[in-house]
Design brief:
The chain is mostly helical. It has one domain. The chain has two helices and two strands. Strand 1 and strand 2 form a beta hairpin. It is elongated, with a radius of gyration of 15 Å.
Length: 71
């Protein structure tokens, strides 16, 4: 169980770094608005939207596993 929690934590960190990298590259190339909308009609719309949703899900799973491991 500890390995799964560590793996999801690493996955969450990598996903957040990828999201930050994509946003930073888009800002530096003045293409941030071309990536909009990220989430519309209650679902992710492009690669950035899916990455954000996956990062949030991995973070949530990691936190839940950490909380249940301590008990």
């Amino acid at each position: 169980m500890k390995n799964i929690q560590r793996l999801t934590t690493i996955l969450a960190i990598v996903l957040w770094l990828v999201v930050i990298g994509i946003v930073a590259v888009a800002i530096s190339n003045n293409q941030l608005w071309s990536m909009a909308p990220v989430i519309a009609y209650n679902r992710p719309q492009n690669a950035l939207g899916w990455l954000i949703v996956a990062a949030i899900a991995a973070t949530a799973v990691s936190v839940i596993l950490k909380l249940t491991r301590d008990k």
